[in-house]
Amino acid sequence: MRINELFDKSPKMTRVSNVEDEVEYQAWVGDRLLVVTFEDMRGDDMWDATFYTRKEDGRSRFDVTGEGDAIPVMGAVISAMKEFVEDRKPERVDFTADKTEKDRETGRAKLYQRLVSRFASQLGYDLDSYDSPNKVTFSLTRSE
Known about the structure:
This protein is an alpha+beta fold. The chain has three helices and ten strands. 26% of the residues lie in helices and 42% in strands. The radius of gyration is 15 Å and the shape is globular. It starts with a helix and ends with a strand. The model has no long low-confidence stretch (mean pLDDT 81).
């Protein structure tokens, strides 16, 4: 199965907020609400992207859940990112991936690198990454 086919099975993201400096998308993945937020906190068209899941009881998680839904979650996040950059055409979008969680390596940074690098050029962006001991920061910069 090709990677695009896997992402086709991801839940549809719904934009729930679209104001000048913040855009938010949501979708249900199993019994958890996936929230993807883009914020331009500095007002300079350099956006920060975050995502997390929230259980029905209101508890939020940024960590790996271990429930086997990484592909639908990442597919939905990439879907939200595609819609966001097509709509807003930001100069840059930054996001991070922790390398470890509870003193264990997660492989999250490597997963993000592989997935996002496949889609960055399709979206008209260059992908750069900045490695530090605990995390990797990714920057999508609009191609000239």
